[in-house]
Amino acid sequence: MPPALKTVADGVHVGALFPRHLFNTVVVEGPAGDVVIDAGFPWSAGRLAGFLRGRDVVEHAVTHAHGDHVGSSAWLCAHTGAPLAMSAVEADGFEHGSVAWHSGAIGRRGVAPLARQRRPVDRRLAPGDAVAGFEVVAQPGHSPGLLAFWRAADRLLVVGDGPINVAADPAAPRWLPLPAGLHHDPAATEASRRAMAALEPALVVSTHGHPVRGDRWIRGITG
Question: Is the overall model pTM greater than 0.90, yes or no?
Answer without folding.
Answer: yes
